[in-house]
Amino acid sequence: MHPEQRKELRARSHHLKPVVITGNAGITPAVLNEISLALDHHELIKVRVNAADRDQRAEMTQMICSELEASLVQAIGHIVTIYRPAPQTTKAR
């Protein structure tokens, strides 16, 4: 992701609230599915990653991004902003 694109996405995400919050179970298949659905619908979302320490949050964030082929835009504390372009739908004629 280019720095200009990251800057624009950070600006767009400023007013967003987290749409998915990870629970005590961490990153489960159900959580990944919810994040994927939110990304399909919104492209740019915030996720609250509940983990005890910074390293664990970074590891969980990396897992989300790699599993869902998404890009990390920003991470501040427990809140991470993630971007994935919406899939292009083709209309049959």
From TrEMBL:
The keyword rRNA-binding does not apply. InterPro entries: RNA-binding_CRM, RNA-binding_domain, RNA-binding_YhbY, YhbY-like_sf. Keywords: RNA-binding. It comes from the Bacteria. PROSITE patterns: CRM (PS51295). One of its GO terms (molecular function) is RNA binding. PANTHER family: RNA-BINDING PROTEIN YHBY. This is Ribosome assembly RNA-binding protein YhbY.
